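Help wanted!
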Amino acid sequence: MQLHEMSIDAFQARLATGEAEPLDWWQTCRERIAAREPEVQAWEFLGPEVEQVPAEGALRGVPVGIKDIIDTCDMPTAWGTGGYLKSDGALVDAAVVTLLQQQGALMMGKTVSTEFAYFTPGKTRNPHDISRTPGGSSSGSAAAVADGMAPLALGTQTAGSIIRPASYCGIYGFKPTFGTVSMAGIKPFAPSLDTLGWFARHIEDICTTYSTLTRAPAIEALPDLSGIRVGVRSLPGDETLSADVIQALRQAHERFEQAGASVFALPLDIRFDALVEHQKVVLAYEAAQSLASEYQRHAHQMGPTLVELIQQGQALTYARYREGQIATAELRQVLSRSFEEEVDVVLAASAPGVAPRGLDATGDPLFCRAWTLLGVPCLNLPIGQGEQGLPVGVQLIGDRYGDDRLLSIARTLMRSPAG
Amino acid sequence: MQLHEMSIDAFQARLATGEAEPLDWWQTCRERIAAREPEVQAWEFLGPEVEQVPAEGALRGVPVGIKDIIDTCDMPTAWGTGGYLKSDGALVDAAVVTLLQQQGALMMGKTVSTEFAYFTPGKTRNPHDISRTPGGSSSGSAAAVADGMAPLALGTQTAGSIIRPASYCGIYGFKPTFGTVSMAGIKPFAPSLDTLGWFARHIEDICTTYSTLTRAPAIEALPDLSGIRVGVRSLPGDETLSADVIQALRQAHERFEQAGASVFALPLDIRFDALVEHQKVVLAYEAAQSLASEYQRHAHQMGPTLVELIQQGQALTYARYREGQIATAELRQVLSRSFEEEVDVVLAASAPGVAPRGLDATGDPLFCRAWTLLGVPCLNLPIGQGEQGLPVGVQLIGDRYGDDRLLSIARTLMRSPAG
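Answered by r_m:
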């Protein structure tokens, strides 16, 4: 197996036996970047060469891409603004940077983000077809991982900024339960929604990163999925799905059944249908507040979609915002009861279809909005194929704080032979 | 009435009639600071002189103290570290600074905070007795407002950092519902708990600031409090209260009854008793994550209480943290049902008693921990007197997102003649 195709645990095993040197993965990724970056354009800034690798840690020698809305001391941060707001180096690294470094990870560089992680695209292209968007807002992180430039990269999700690019780029993308990993040192956009997550090419690497960052026990695969109840339900509902997505969901469905799980259509209370709209309200209201200072100074330099969002948020009443928050708090409990009583994991659409053509937009986060608002863990599985063989993912969703269960089921599923 | 004793609305009325000039309040506060700062030591940094006041805004000409964990461009920020971490000026102001300035408020300076808003005290003294602590972590903001150095000052609360100093300093302190005002540009400590709030000498000013920052309708007083149900319940329970606090609660109780409200002992589910411990767990776990980078570089310069907290947090399991979060989410809904069905406002202890002697500690946030974890709005009423005539507050607590109702009841109560 090529080094850039290896899993984190496999690399650690090679390090332990002396078959690999601590800087091998870093060098392989640098070479890959040198070859591919002119086409893919995943990086805003490449970090300095690493000279020493920490002696220990679950992520020893693992190169990581850092989304460019995450503060770093020894690399600039520009929040996807193209430079109208730019720090040459933060006073303090974002917490997650230190937490990763303490486990031996190596900071490869800053990956391209849309403007403040909203919709104005950066330069990055989809490695599967460079005439298409990689999705956003974590565009560079998804493209870098999909293209073998880094085995692991950080993203954030406020609407669909991890799951959608993971689906478009054909990789795993994981948004853990809201609040799982500290956002300290990451610019807030809509703080009720903003969640740190990560991309990888292996489900095992998603799991290793989760248990490393939370210091929770390692995620084990189950013997099989017998007894596991899979509820199929997209938000918004199934009547809006494209043929590509229906096909990907069917593949996932069959694979679950082959592994012993039972699959059924999950009935959800009619109130869940309002969540997409509530998410838009919460996002706009909070973004208008959070970016008040940036808007005050830089509105004339901002992209029109961001200006429009902030103005929408300014026009919203607090009463409408509150309505969304109160309805959501109630539905979080309703969904938790459903996870307690009738379902182990929800299977849902990740995105409307394959990555759209063009680099002037990053696609629609529609199928992620409600789940992000609910704060539940979401995992994109790179399982389907659409037109021209382009990737179409599906997402698995777990209960709030049920990340370990979700990942364990996913790990078992993806180890099972495909149907 | 002296200018420094005036309410915001009264000052706006004088501006409108030409009886006051826009910079009058600023000048009065500067004079007060010049006279009193050597004793009180509320300020970490005094801002530059203001030369022009915005032409409009609900807070036009109102000087505001900014807690020194809140980013500012034209003033340094040192997060209560005494300088081992210090920014000479942030790239972007914290969102709340811009939101206040857009309403015409004037930034007076940065007020003293404990170290990262935890327990290591700054230099500030209690204006009522300079041998005593003003409380913390928002020490300078509370002392400045209590001493007439500013009519309004910002604080943050993660355990009891607004309510406790307000109680010790004999002023109003308001922690709105979690998430009400953006924390963008404010260093996170425990992001599930950290809440921005403010201090004032008038309940009307607490209300004006709330409706200005949320752009919600103005808070009106009710004709009287008949029909209002006041549930008395401290967390932890009443058996732990000191004589001073019991006396203050009795005064509030009587005043409510005189205004027509009915007062009763609120029964709360036994599970609420676990919230104080859950709050400590959530706080330590999140602080260890959020301050990972600061700890990595500056542990040797940190105060021992902060180091101990971070080490406690590092030793906690994710499973224990999750247990606290899940229990809290459930109890938030239980409490909301109680607000829907049986109670309009909860009356509770703010602090264990009057401000403790000495400047080497800032007192105990015990009686605020559970409410902060629940995310409900809390308002300190400066209503009682303890030994040597020192202030003892009580807090009123409303339902999550029921801030307007809570403030309206408080405004009505405090207008009613004291018993």
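OP: Thanks! One thing I noticed: Chain B has two domains: 3-214, 229-274+319-415.
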